[in-house]
Amino acid sequence: MKRKTLIPLALTAAATLGATTLGVINAQTASAALTSNWYASAPYLMPFDNSPPDAVDVMNATGQKAFQLAFILAPNGGGCTPTWDGTRAVSADTEAAALISRIRAAGGDVSVSIGGYGGTKLGQTCGSPAATAAAYQQVVTKYGLKAIDFDLEEPEYENAAAVHNELGAAQILQQNNPGLYVSVTTAGTTSGTGWFGTEMLKDAKSLGFTPNNYSIMPFDGGFSGASAQTAAAEAFHTILMNTFGWDSATAYGHEGVSLMNGRSDAGEYFRQADFQTVLDYATSHHLARYTYWSVNRDRQCADPNQSTTSGTCSSVPQTAWEFTKYTARFAGATPPTTNPTTGGPPPTTPGTGTCTAAAWNSGTAYSGGALVSYNGHTWKAAWWTQGETPGSASVWVDQGTCGGTGGTTQPPTCPAAWSAGTAYNGGATVSYGGHKWTAKWWTQGDIPGNNAQNVWTDNGAC
């Protein structure tokens, strides 16, 4: 069960981490804890690999306040001391500390994730739960953590002794650090979780250990969009009730999902509409956690429809940080609507022609087909949008310069905008990205120009 797409890039993390050199983040420099919903929404971010973005820029663009920094592992050469990715000793770290301080100075916070897919885990190399907990306590203390994530995956996932060490360590940390937010993340299957995941839950029950949530990863296991993911969450809900004897509300209140944006390692596709569907499910069932892998991938590839999985982009059409806005919404934030290019208010509309369409406003939500004026041009929305600047986002189709005598250039006629929630029969026409598309057969949720079945025929620009 793959999860963490790691593509070493030998790139500097200076832009992400900042120039500040810090050691231990003590009580004076550590910010007060955020409310738990922010730790429950924190998306994963690799600070040292996969072309890390600037976390503060992402915060400003999305409203997200917390990130899940990944990953803490055992040293590549063995031993029971914590490192970042097996190579950077936590005891000597200054770069992650600088990043955490920058995030906190901007009003946010971090959780740190231990484990992930691949690599040697401390549960494998430390001889007992107590020794494993002592290693992780170094991380909690150094960074003044208020939250930590135990991401139990292969090869540790299939090692009962190692998993026992991790769960025992989590329980000890929970006891020794009052208020510490603890999440446990594990593999998801279409049946909820597999045999090893169920055994992990049984071990937790035998310890009397209850974290803030148990989260499954419903991808890389034969999933086909949001309906399969919500079905897996329902199946996992049943497993939680049966294992712990919880009623339905208690089980939902200790359940979470950790998604993967765009193309998964197994070639599955999870687009914006899928994230919205799962978000609706999570909020309506009062799930305890909604997050995803990863912020490093929350941007469009040079080829937005590439058929490979990347650690640095999503392989689906999107605007930057679009998937992170879903986690911010789960936490209860309204993503900001400032100019995404400058971070400030939208610029005024220059130009000599008189425009009859209302000037674009970053705070207005526009439906597909809406007309606005911006920089002396008329623009038409291809689908619903808010806060995306005409000329810098593909949602806006340029209809030409505004007329010099008070009119606008007559825009071409487009069919109704494509909608992810609408079922289309063969022969149906829609507009998307400024083009007209015709369905070859019945379809729902397949983005025109971006689906393996090639269901949509491109009829050219409207």
From TrEMBL:
Question: Secretion signal: which residues?
Answer: 1-32
Tell me which SUPFAM superfamilies the record gives.
(Trans)glycosidases, Carbohydrate binding domain
Q: Name one Pfam family in it.
A: CBM_5_12
Keyword Cell membrane on this protein? no
Keyword Lyase in record: no
Every GH18 domain range: 39-316
TM ranges are none
Which keywords are on file for this protein?
Answer: Hydrolase, Signal
Know the name of this protein? Carbohydrate-binding protein
Please tell me the species this chain comes from. Answer: Dactylosporangium vinaceum
